Every structure is written in C-alpha cells, then in structure tokens.
C-alpha cells in the first residue's frame, strides 16, 4: 500500500481509503463489516472514512467497534458533518456552530476515539454564515478533537473562500472529497486547479461509479439481483444516472484495456483516479472482504499515458465534465 501527503500538510494517508457509506449499519451485517475492516487493515489500508449521517450514526459506531484494539496512532480516521442526524430536529442539520460542536462530540463517542484526523463539511451550508462555520471548525481543531479540516462537494469558489478563512484562523483546510471517476470528471476544470493552487488534495468517492465500472451492468439487461441498482435504501438513486445503454456499452469496451494491464475492471477504475496528482486517495467500500483484497491491488499501478488516452477515446462523450454539476447537485437549503 502506498501513502500520499494530504494537501499541503505533513499528514500521509493510504492512497486507497476504506469508506463505509451505504454499507455499515445498513446493507452489511456487523460481523461482515468487521471482516471488511480487518481485510482493509491486513492490506495496509490505514485511512478510514465515514460520516455521522451514514445509517443515521450507526456506521460510525460499527467502524469504531471494528477498529477497537488497533493502535490509534497508526490510523487516520475521517468523518463528516452536515446532513440531518438523530431525531432530525431543526438544529440537527447544517454547519451552524451548535450543530458542529454537538456533532463532533457524538462522532468521537461513537468512533471510540479522542480525536479524528480529518473533520469534513459534508456539504456547503447556504443558510449559515461561512465565518460561523469556519470559526467552529477552528475551535474543534484547537480543542484537539480534530487535527485537520476538509470539505466535500464544495465548488471551487466555496473552497477558496473557506480556505482563506481557515488560514486567517490559523487552521489547515487540506482536503476536498468529491465524486470522481472515469465517467464523472466534473472537478477537473475548476475544483482541481483551485485545489492545487491552495494546497488542497482530493479524497475521491465512488471511483468505480457505484459499481458501473466493474462491467457488471450490461446494456439491454436488468441489473443483477442484489446489486446497488436494486437497493431501495439509496444506492439505486445514485447509480441510475449511469445506467444508460450508451454508457454501459462504452464501459464494456474497457474490458480489453483492463485485461492488457492485467487488472480487473474495478482495479482499472481505482487506478485511473489515482493517476491524477491532486488525488491523495480513492475511497473504496465493500460488502465482502474479498472486494477489499482485490481492489487494493490498484495501489501503486501506473497507467501509461497512451493507455489513459485510449480510455478517453473509448468512453468518448458519455463522460460528464460540466463543472456546474457540483453546484447543481448541492443542497440550496438545509434538508428538513
């Protein structure tokens, strides 16, 4: 397992990070979840990403229990705050000082740790002054409850404004967590160049495009039983944007490329995002330990430039590149 620096900081994280969105506390039984975490640790993964909203806080609890007994200093634990949690009252959401301060305490309790390495704003809060949000994050860092701060799915302009305030407050905003894959490249035009300038790295989620880049979804055929596209708990909504025959046909054409590199299609997808020098880590999830064992083999893979160009040619115009999609997909107001 290779490690990379996170942003302009001295913190190194495993370039493949284990995440438990849509799995722990919901899709996957706790015993299987623990087995996946053990597989991640055995494979050399040291970085683990979660959020308070995943399974309405249950995912943090499962991850904390799975990591119990591990040397804390040898791990990098990330979590997030923004989406509604708990009974979902009027202050159980957003990036107000109240919600941030209460949420970090809840996350630490569930994770069974005194601090997280990275505390992330899970979305931009249009209803809270950014100054209030960044001051609260700075106080969380000064209290020793988080070492660094980051954001998720913020636009380039929002990252720039948040980074400037963090710098004024003497804390380090070092990461951005966007969706990024061969099929979803909306961060390349604006977010990545801005982040490079500011010393911010990407920790990308869904590098396999919710499983589409494994090739298991085939044009003209129904989704496989038990796949994310059949999951009514949320997975189906996320994957449906890619389940068009034109997209699925192009994805099937990637199989020979993967074979030539002696990679599975999933490994190719993970390795592809790691070719971007602004990407510090790709987050992988798993419902079975063997998925972790296989996907970590993407670590350290170098894809030749001519093969990267070939991949672009295969996918053609089914790739989404419009930077406006980040803002379009962002909440305009806090969820009720």
TrEMBL record:
Entry similarity comment: Belongs to the shaker potassium channel beta subunit family.
Keyword line: NADP, Oxidoreductase
Name recorded for this polypeptide: Aryl-alcohol dehydrogenase-like predicted oxidoreductase
GO cellular-component term (any): cytosol
Domain NADP-dependent oxidoreductase: start-end pairs: 15-314
Keyword DNA damage in annotation: no
Organism per entry: Kineococcus xinjiangensis
Region Disordered, residue ranges: 215-234
Gene3D superfamilies in the record: NADP-dependent oxidoreductase domain
Entries under SUPFAM superfamilies matching the protein: NAD(P)-linked oxidoreductase (SSF51430)
Superkingdom per UniProt: Bacteria
Gene Ontology MF terms: oxidoreductase activity
């Amino acid at each position: 397992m290779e490690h990379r620096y996170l942003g302009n900081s001295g913190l190194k994280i495993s370039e493949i990070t284990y995440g438990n969105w849509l799995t722990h506390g919901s899709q996957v039984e706790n015993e299987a979840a623990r087995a996946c975490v053990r597989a991640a640790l055995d494979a050399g993964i040291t970085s683990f990403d979660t959020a308070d909203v995943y399974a309405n806080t249950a995912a943090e609890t499962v991850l904390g229990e799975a990591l119990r007994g591990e040397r804390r200093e040898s791990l990098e634990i990330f979590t997030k705050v923004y989406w509604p949690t708990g009974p979902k009252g009027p202050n159980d959401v957003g990036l107000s000082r109240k919600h941030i301060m209460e949420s970090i305490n809840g996350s630490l309790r569930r994770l069974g740790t005194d601090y997280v390495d990275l505390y992330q704003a899970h979305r931009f809060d249009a209803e809270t002054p950014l100054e209030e949000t960044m001051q609260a994050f700075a106080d969380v860092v000064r209290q020793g409850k988080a070492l660094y701060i980051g954001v998720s799915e913020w636009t380039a302009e929002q990252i720039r404004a948040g980074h400037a305030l963090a710098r004024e407050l003497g804390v380090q905003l070092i990461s951005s967590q966007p969706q990024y894959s061969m099929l979803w490249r909306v961060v390349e035009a604006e977010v990545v160049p801005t982040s490079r300038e500011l010393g911010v790295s990407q920790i990308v989620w869904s590098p396999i495009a919710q499983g589409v880049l494994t090739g298991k979804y085939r044009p003209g055929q129904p989704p496989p039983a038990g796949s994310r596209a059949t999951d009514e708990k949320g997975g189906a909504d996320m994957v449906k944007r890619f389940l068009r025959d034109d997209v699925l046909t192009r994805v099937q054409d990637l199989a020979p490329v993967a074979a030539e590199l002696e990679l599975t299609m999933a490994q190719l997808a993970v390795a592809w995002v790691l070719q971007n020098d602004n990407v510090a880590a790709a987050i992988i999830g798993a419902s079975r330990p063997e998925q972790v064992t296989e996907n970590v083999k993407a670590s350290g893979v170098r894809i030749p430039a001519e093969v990267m160009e070939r991949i672009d040619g295969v996918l053609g115009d089914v790739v989404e590149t419009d930077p406006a999609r980040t803002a379009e997909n962002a909440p305009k107001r806090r969820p009720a």
